[in-house]
Amino acid sequence: MVQVYDLVASIDPDQALPYLSRLGAIASAILANRDDKKNRPPDLTRGRVMKSWGSPTFNRDCRWNTDVSISGLFLYPMAAFARRVADNPARYSQFTAPAIALIDGAFETYQDFHSELHLADNDPFAYYNTPPGYSTLTCSAFYENFAMMKALAELALAANSNLYRASPTATPDRMQTATGELPLLIAKNVAFRNSNFRPKVLGDLTPYYEWDQQLYKARAEDMSHAQFELGCLAVILENQVRLNELLANAGRTERVPIDPSMCARIANTFLRIVWSDNLLSGDVSGGHGRDGSKNVECAGWIPFAQFDPWVWTRARDTVFNPNPPNATAPNLRVDNHGALLRYRKFNSMKFLTDFAGQNWLITPAAPAVGERPPKTIHDQKWLLVLSGVVFAYQRGHNSGSWNHQTVSFMPDMAGPDDSTATSGPLNWAIDQYSIPRPPGVVGQDYRVRFSLEEWSPFVSLGSVFDQAQSINAGFAVDEWRPNHFDTGTDALTNQSVNNIFTGVNADLAVCD
Fold first, then answer.
1. Sign, CA torsion 228/232/237/239
2. Rounded Cα distance, 41 and 428, in Å
3. What's the CA dihedral at 375, 377, 383, 389 to 10 degrees?
4. Residue 383, beta-bridge partner list
5. Residue burial 305-316, b: 16+ Cβ < 10 Å; e: rest
């Protein structure tokens, strides 16, 4: 539901309303059925009725149990709904009261597991410990931690909103938790997860990862848990800029450690190790066979099509490769279906984000002879020159034919859409020429963009590498052009603005 809402909201917010409404109904029902609200049994491991969701665990001790991972699963729709309402309270005013109630409920559940949390200033890692009466393990499995981190990423941003800050339940302790503790916990838990990613390299120098399901258990992560935790990581990635802003505002030096090269390795793991001939392996090392039984487990990999579009294509083809041999229905499930819809724009284009360097020049454009000079700084026209190097990582496929790929990249114009951004030519010009900003918070109430009258992009090869012997190797940039322009509304004049720059597209080709 969240995936579909995000997809539709980016196109038509009004059409997205039914999906948000349904998500809110699901989230409210989840909260109403929490153990403490339904007079359910106590969790005997923890010695109390938890503000969580328990059940008899017949594969463990047959007692009523709650745990961090299940709680994270239920908290996510609650926090995701609340964050989307809090980001647009005027548009979704009918949902503000339930959004606040869901934020309150999410905080209650988080606090109920707080004693099991390892978060210390002298440790770069954070994680949930397993209760002593439950297991002898030092900490919960990686995917169990990530289930909660995914929800907490949404909760931190929802609670930091003007909507929640104005509510009577937004106590100083809760706001400190939302803006300080939660972002720090997420950053350190991602660092904890990253510490178990083992970098590997194929014979053709393609980098990828292997990793384990659990600390102290050297066993490759199975496919169902791997795709789940990668789906959680994708949610954290989408909120990374705003979480890092909270860390910076809190005076912390830690940041959520996710970068393009890491995500590209994850994409390579799917394409070169996990996937083969529209069948997925049983674990992330490529082991445990490929009988088609794991083809449904691709949802969490799909967001990494942002770093290689073949991930989307291979996932789609795998989903529609039936199993077992006599099956008539595809492996289409709610999670992979939603992800295929949400990330389908990455099917035909590779988005480049790994820049070796960027340069820019921006200066006021002088009026021509007889041209009326600008009356205010808002009427000023500008000359903007951008240059730099971005890595495409385009490879040949040893077939003797050309491997074509359309890529898109967006130079740094004004940094990320948050109040801490200072990079890029637009921020420099705003400061240098004392250009007044609109009221509100950048990234929430307005965004800094550049509208073009004329443009002349140019893309060329910076370097190539030809490994081993090849015959008739070739490298080309066939065409280049601006990405489709965006439109918007001027925050000061309320007039429509066209030709908003959104990057450059180029058609690349490699023959090996």
1. positive
2. 60
3. -170
4. 363
5. bbbbbbbbebbb
SS3 annotation, 231-296: HHHHHHHHCHHHHHHHHHHCCCCCCCCCCHHHHHHHHHHHHHHHEECCEECCECCCCCCCCCCCCC
Strands of the sheet containing 504-511, edge to edge, are: 350-352, 402-409, 504-511, 474-482
Q: Is the pLDDT of residue 353 over 90?
A: no
Enter the DSSP assignment of 133.
T
The number of C-alpha atoms within 13 Å of 138 and in the hemisphere containing its C-beta is 7
> What is the rounded (10 degree) CA torsion for 129, 131, 132, 134?
-120
Q: How far apart are CA 58 and CA 383, in angstroms?
A: 69
Q: Average per-residue pLDDT in the chain?
A: 90
At 137 the pLDDT is 45
Query: Helices then strands (H, E): number in the chain?
Result: 14, 18
pLDDT (0 to 100) of residue 324: 58
Q: Which residues of 323-350 are buried (b: 16+ CB within 10 A; e: fewer)?
A: beeeeeebbeeebbbbbbebbeebeeeb
Please check whether residue 410 is in contact with residue 390, taking contact to mean a CB–CB distance below 8 angstroms: no
Q: Residue 30, Cβ neighbours under 10 Å: how many?
A: 19
- Distance between CA atoms of residues 452 and 498, nearest Å: 8
pTM, rounded to two decimals:
0.78
Each residue of 214-224: b (16+ CB within 10 Å) or e? bbeeeebbbbe
Predicted local confidence at residue 130, as pLDDT: 74
Contact at 8 Å (CB) between 370 and 426?
Answer: no
Q: Which of 25, 30, 9 is nearest to 106 (CA)?
A: 30
Tell which residue, 355, 312, 364, 404, has the closest CA to residue 503: 355
Instruction: Tell me how far the alpha carbon of residue 393 is from its chain's centroid.
Output: 21
- Look at residue 323 in the predicted model and tell me its pLDDT: 59
Query: What does the pLDDT look like over 439-490, one tens digit per residue?
Result: 888 877 788 999 999 999 999 998 888 777 777 788 999 999 998 888 888 8
Please report, for the chain, the start and end positions of each structural domain, with discontinuous segments joined by +. Answer: 66-256, 259-346, 352-511
Contact between 460 and 477 under an 8 Å Cβ cutoff? The reply is yes
Say if CB 267 and CB 305 are below 8 A apart: yes
**Rounded to 5 degrees, what are φ and ψ at 491?**
-65, -20
Q: What is the dihedral of CA 243, 445, 84, 227, to 10 degrees?
A: -40
Place of tokens 């010009």: 429
Q: Are 218 and 392 in contact (CB under 8 A)?
A: no
CA torsion, points 38, 44, 48, 53, in degrees to nearest 10? -40
